[in-house]
Amino acid sequence: MTNRIVSNACRRMSLCAASMAILGATALSPLRAHAQGVEAPTYSALVPAALSSAQVVRAKLANGLRVVIVPDRLAPVVTTEINYLVGSAEAPKGFPGTAHALEHMMFRGSKGLDKDQLAAIGTRLGGSYNADTTEDVTQYFYTAQADDLPVLLKIEALRMNGLTLSEADWQKERGAIEQEVARDLSSPAYRYLEQLQAILFAGTPYEHDALGTRPSFDKTTAADLRAFYKKWYAPNNAILIIAGDVDPVKALQLVQDTFDSIPARTLPARQAVAPVPPPARTLSLTTDYPVGFATLAFPMPGYSAKDFAVADILSDVLSSQRGALYDLVPQGKALFAGFEYAPKKEAGFGLALAAFPKGGDSAKAMQDIRGVLETLRKQGVPADLVEAAKKREIAQLQFAANSVSGLASLWSNALAFQNLSSPGDMVAAYQAVTPEQVNQLAARLLDPAHAVSAVLTPETSGQPVSGKGFGGAESFATAPDKPVALPEWADKALARLEEPKPTPMPATSTLPNGLTLVVWPSHVSHTIQLAGQVRQTPSLQQPKGQDGVSDITEALFSYGTTTHDRLAFQKALDDIPAWESAGSGFSLRVLTPDFEKGVALLAENELHPAFPEKDFAVVRVQSAQAQAGELASPGHLFSRAVKAAILPANDPALREATPQSIMKVSHEDVRHYYQQAWRPDLTTIVVTGDITPEKARAVIEKEFGGWKAEGPTPDITLPAVPLSRASRAVVPDKSSVQDEVVLAETLGLTPAQPDHFLLQLGNEVLGGGLFSSRLYRDLRVKTGYVYSVGSAFEWGRTRGMYSVNFGADPDKVGKARNAALHDIKAMQLAPPSAEELALAKASLLRSIPLQRASLDRIASQYLYLSDLGLPLDNADRAAHAYYGATGAEVQKAFQHWMRPDDLASIVKGPTPTW
Fold first, then answer.
1. Which residues of 156-178 are buried (b: 16+ CB within 10 A; e: fewer)?
2. Reduced to 3 states, what is the DSSP secondary structure of residue 528?
3. N or C: which end of the chain has fewer CB within 10 A?
4. Residue 718 pLDDT > 80, yes or no?
């Protein structure tokens, strides 16, 4: 489970994500889109139904609980998100992690629902459940089938009014949370943000983030947590958001029946947050990132500030790909450059950053950032970028209904953090922003006298792998070691396993040029989303000596088309507006009326990229510089060691680019690679949203129908691999707190074979079912060998791989490995128990509808199946296989396909004890 405990900033800013952006894996800015008109549209016309006060049911119970119910018919799914208006800002002095600790204890049981029952219910629901602690708000959210709403509400009501909070439970959970702290402190990004927050918010409750410290947890008792719980966890200090496929009137009655009896409490006074802009400071940190970062941070308004909308637009302008900061990249002055705005409720900060290659000139990168920001501060920002940002922010709201959990999160953010009555209220705020206001705010905020500068310098080794443990998996419960009797209300709702119902199929067709089109109409918003992929295997398609040509080609798609140069193309997208990306994987988000214009621009970029020779020279150097750092990074070396352990020595998947091979790639090589690798007969496009199959086909055929495949179809299918054998490898990492361990082997089957469903079901028992799994029980709960453990299958058209992963102290690696092997072998020696099998089936079957709870996930599912060559009804086939499977069949599949004694063991960190 993911956790957002560091700060609200982590929702919008991550240096780990930024480093991926440098390598071409993602973009820093969130995906947005907006509406267009000659005259400014009216407020009501711009507010989507799912975000307007008129389209929801809201109430305030007699005990003060605020309830908002937002209908969304995207899928038979519901998300509940309960927001307690308290966080680390209200923690007692000297105990900064109190709110975070209490969040953990909310999963340790309450009156009428012990921790084992809670874990079992969570597994049977088949959904996702999690929590996060910020400085001002603590949130608990469940996503499950809509019919299970009564169960979700019952859980929250029991936790609101009767948390157990025993000293014995806290002693167990304290060990887990202290390991989490140690793990996060190993992250360069976390250490940087921790120091930054302490400087920017000195003397305020924001001075310490929500994570907490080991010394404070050592002093904390269950009585301390109980006192905090009794002060703040009350219905009159909470907001409950319900979003999804529910009847609002019936849902409200259910809420009243469930929560009405919980008494209100008198709430304490809150601490004021009024940070004073600090004097300029400079930080210096070492990291194991593949690249370095020069950063400048500035105090900025929080979510609830009256000038939040102005600050948000300013951040959009500064991060625009048409802006001066981003222009450092095509100029060859930075591997990546951008700006991030990280608001909390009462205050926030902005962060400008530029990436430089390992061994590069950090002082020059810092000078370039300062120069850009100072020019903008003195001369102002371009007015047209302000208007473009306003339209994008407004239209971004239109996409909210396309994700059930995302819709609940947006409403929670609006009410709990922004003090709004609905997310749609931001439309008027954005409309009112003027370029003059943005310039005035920039002149005041981007003041070098109050900037915190930092240089994050990459080192070859000696630091933990970047991102490991920062905002990572949390453990909220322990696995029961015996069958669990559920409370009557939960047993009645969840015990019976229903026969799977077929999922409606999308409209699928093939254009004359071989392009496959999949259309899933969904009219929950007036938006359309497109996702596509060109099936490629660069390790087979890149000519000998040209490793890296694929990466360069992908990066050059953002440099314009044969019709529009880079800036003109981005402006054309802004003018529609639309969000677009091109390459082997491509996408488009646009409002319904602008779908044809958006697809025309997408096709222009995908089919007629400019690949400018001047920009090619810059991108090639940047790619080589980034790859030099990547090849020396511990994360890459570990990943490489896993592949080398299970693949033959000359397997194509072991090919990798070097700075030298990248610099040998010519401009003509890029053009030739594009012509050879981009083909319509290897392309699938999925269109989802407010459109009919007929309209989608007409538009796609108009723009992509003239695309013709040239030459014979390339061989892009990796060869089958032999069964791997046991081996051991250690990737040194001297200062790692724990060893990171992967046990891996190749398999003799592919996902086209029915037995893979039985293996998936068995793995839910073994290691995929999280708290209910045998691996978690035997490696974590009973023995304490590991902090976290899981297992998974990875499938390809011709290959399969199985892996177990865990983190353990060096002296426990061998013991944990032996325990894992014992559990795998036990799956071969005896069938899973009836209780285990029922739990695994419930988890997998109930999770299937949840995979369709957002348009993004629907599209990703169809593209994944297309890539594997599987039928689009594969989820239904899986459901029937799970439903009818017996324990004996699962045992037989594990006997036939799994080879515990052949698992390779790969470790990153100190030398382990085997």
1. bbbbbbebbbeeebbeebbebbb
2. strand
3. C
4. yes
Q: What is the pLDDT of residue 770?
A: 66
Q: How far is CA 802 from CA 163, 751, 901, in A?
A: 39, 13, 13
510, 516 Cβ separation under 8 angstroms: yes
578-581 β-sheet, strand order? 507-510, 516-521, 683-689, 527-534, 585-591, 578-581
Query: Read out DSSP for 560-603?
Result: BBSSSBHHHHHHHHHHTTEEEE-SSEEEEEEEGGGHHHHHHHHH
**CA distances (Å), origin 766, targets 263, 608, 717, 776, 791:** 42, 49, 31, 8, 8
Q: Tell which residue, 793, 840, 778, 770, has the closest CA to residue 129.
A: 770
pLDDT digits (tens, 9 = 90+) for 328-341: 999 999 999 999 99
Structure tokens at 571: 């402006």
In sequence order, what are the residues at sequence separation of 6 or more whose Cβ sits closer than 8 angstroms to the Cβ of residue 89? 135, 136, 205, 206, 270, 271, 273, 346
Judged against a pLDDT cut of 70, whether residue 39 lies above it is answered with no
Task: Measure CA 912 to chain center.
Answer: 31
Burial level of 436, CB count in 10 A (0-12/13-18/19+)? exposed
pLDDT 10s digits, 816-838: 999 999 999 999 999 999 989 99
Where exactly are the structural domains of the chain?
Answer: 281-404+415-458, 507-704, 728-908
> Tokens standing for 430?
């954005």
Architecture of domain 507-704: 2-Layer Sandwich (3.30)
**What DSSP string runs through 374-427?**
HHHHHH---HHHHHHHHHHHHHHGGGGGGBHHHHHHHHHIIIIIS--S-TTHHH
Helices 549-556 + 613-632 axis angle, to 10: 130
Residue 608 has a pLDDT of 98
Residue 543 has pLDDT above 60, yes or no: yes
d(CA 289, CA 633): 7
The CA-to-CA distance between both ends of the chain, in Å, stands at 29
In contact, 625 and 659? CB cutoff 8 Å:
yes
Segment 227-255, tens digit of pLDDT: 999 999 999 999 999 999 999 999 999 99
Which residue intervals of 680-764 are DSSP H helices?
A: 693-704, 755-763
- Specify the pLDDT at position 55: 76
Q: What is the pLDDT of residues 753-768, one digit of tens each?
A: 999 999 999 999 999 8
Please, are residues 431 and 394 in contact by the beta-carbon 8 Å criterion? yes
The pair of structure tokens assigned to 155 is 């859980």
**Nearest Cα to 100, choosing from 89, 109, 87?**
87
Q: How far is CA 293 from CA 18, 455, 897, 911, in A?
A: 10, 6, 46, 31
Superfamily (CATH) of domain 281-404+415-458: Metalloenzyme, LuxS/M16 peptidase-like (3.30.830.10)
Residue 16 pLDDT exceeds 50: no
Q: What is the pLDDT of residues 447-463, one digit of tens each?
A: 999 999 999 998 765 44
Give yes or no for a cis peptide into 577 (omega within 30° of 0). yes
Condensed to tens digits (0 to 9), the pLDDT of residues 65-82 reads: 999 999 999 999 999 999
pLDDT at 467: 44
Q: CATH classification of 728-908 is 3.30.830.10, yes or no?
A: yes
Interatomic CA distance for residues 875 and 419, integer angstroms: 41
Is 39 exposed, middle or buried (CB count within 10 Å of its CB: 0-12, 13-18, 19+)? exposed
Closest by CA position to 187, among listed 685, 735, 645: 735
Does pLDDT of 473 surpass 50?
A: no
**Residue 580: pLDDT above 70?**
yes
Evaluate whether 515 touches 685 at the Cβ level (below 8 Å).
Answer: yes
CA–CA–CA angle 470, 473, 477 (5° rounding): 140
Note whether 281-404+415-458 and 728-908 share their fold: yes
pLDDT at residue 489 tops 90: yes
Question: Which of 271, 303, 7 has its CA nearest to residue 132?
Answer: 7
pLDDT tens per residue across span 605-618: 999 999 999 999 99
